[in-house]
# Entry
Amino acid sequence: MMAGLAAVLALFVPALVTAHHGLANFDLNTEVSIAGTVTRVSFVNPHSWVYLDVRDAEGEITVWRCELRGASVLRRSGWAPDMFATGTELTITGAPDRFEPNTCYLGTVVFADGTSVDRYDQIAPAPPPRAERPARRPSGVPNLAGDWAAEQRMLTDPRGMAGAFLPMRVAQALEPGAVPQGLEAFPGTRGTAVSLAEDPIDAAWNVPSGIPLTEAGARAIERFDGASTDNPRLRCETTNILFDWAFESDVNRIVQEEDRITLLYGTLGFERTIHLDQTAHPDDLEPGRAGHSIGRWEGDELVVETVGFLPGILSADRRIPHSGQMRVVERFTLDPEGPALRRSYVAEDPLYLESEFAGADVVYPADVPYMETTCDDRSFRSSSNGSGESSESPTRWGWIAWAGVGLLGAIILLGMTRRHRRRA
# Structure
């Protein structure tokens, strides 16, 4: 058993170092339990929220909101919005938010009939048998077309309070909260240095860069705050072609034609085209998040070169920026027996990076169909106002600005009134 787990861990090690945002917002060393009535639920990415009225002994009602996992992975786990229909009575046990009152991290929910569900529970029925898919296209090249998704990852504690963050099949084979030898508990979980830090957000995000940077690269990332809307994914924008393919375990779609392959990312519906009928990049490229990709088959391996990027963030969690000079080479290999689609990649950036940024990931035939899910980040320092409303709501600084305008207007109005009285 352990040998099998070790093999799986070795495959996923590059993915294990990336953090899932927002965990440090909650004090997982403390538990809170609330009972109330659901008023609404928002199934959105990167995290869903359930809102409820909590009545105290005196009959006073307090509005609470509790964070769940993102809509994409909840859907893959069999969760649905109707579990939290308006009027549903439930009890939530979890962790309190460090910054926002009446806000919690959902660890376990118990419904009125006594049934309970933990944060990482898979409550979906067994997926139907996979339809037979041709391993090759009529032209003879591997058939990559279809809906694909990375294996879901979860904390080894099903409640999401402790342990390592691992591929689901590995985590479920371990004791609750276990941390396999050679790995560390996920930063921000119970008892970790981040969770006990004086400033957990700073401890989680203000870390040394994951790879050596040039002087220009160090300057580019110097003021970056990964827990704010400096981070593309916290303002509901595409990060890059490498990060978004597997990070959130969203369902992606590949459309394969003779002259091109289109990759539709479940994260934000990001789309990129791999041109198979081109051998060179155009001279007049317009930079973008997707860049310009040309591909070729080397035997059964698809090799893709991409250039023409807008400057951005290669890894927010590891504080690695990239410039417009970044060049990415990806290699896609299909294992028809799995079936599984493995991608390895190398990014080079002579302006910002002193060494290559390399990694790998694996996706499998998806257990649910491709679907773009709404993004609406309501986390601390991403929505800024702490109201739990849409990230399009005015920021805290926006409210200060409006308050200033209102105060200035009141002063002007008072001055006009006094002048009017003197004239009278």
The two ends are 93 Å apart (CA to CA).
